[in-house]
Amino acid sequence: MQELREKYKDDPTRMNQEVMKLYKQYGINPVGGCCRWRFRILFSSGLYQMLAQAVELRNAKFLLGTRSSNRTR
């Protein structure tokens, strides 16, 4: 990558073409990391919404824990 940057520093279009060739040669997907990140965000927000709206889980102590000020001795 560094060699390509130095070789084509005056021609960004050509540099991008060479980088894409390099990605294709080694089987790298440039947006592969984004897809996983996006899936995690969507899954986490959906899980949060489900837990927040579930009637059966309202006022459940195991989700929120107990506060020390509410404990009786």
Question: How would you portray this structure in words?
Answer:
This protein is mainly alpha-helical and 73 residues long. Helix content is 64%, strand content 0%. The protein is rod-shaped, with a radius of gyration of 25 Å.
Number of helices: 4
Largest sheet: none
N-to-C terminal Cα separation, in Å?
65 Å
Weakly predicted, low-confidence segments: none
Mean pLDDT: 81
Helix content: 55-70%
Computed over alpha carbons, the radius of gyration is: 25 Å
Structural class: mainly alpha
What is the H/E string? HHHH
Strand content: under 5%
Shape: rod-shaped
Counted beta strands: 0
Please specify the SSE layout and strand pairing.
Layout: H1 2-7, H2 12-26, H3 32-53, H4 61-64
Short note summarizing the structure:
The protein has 73 residues and is an all-alpha fold. It has 4 helices and no strands. Helix content is 64%, strand content 0%.
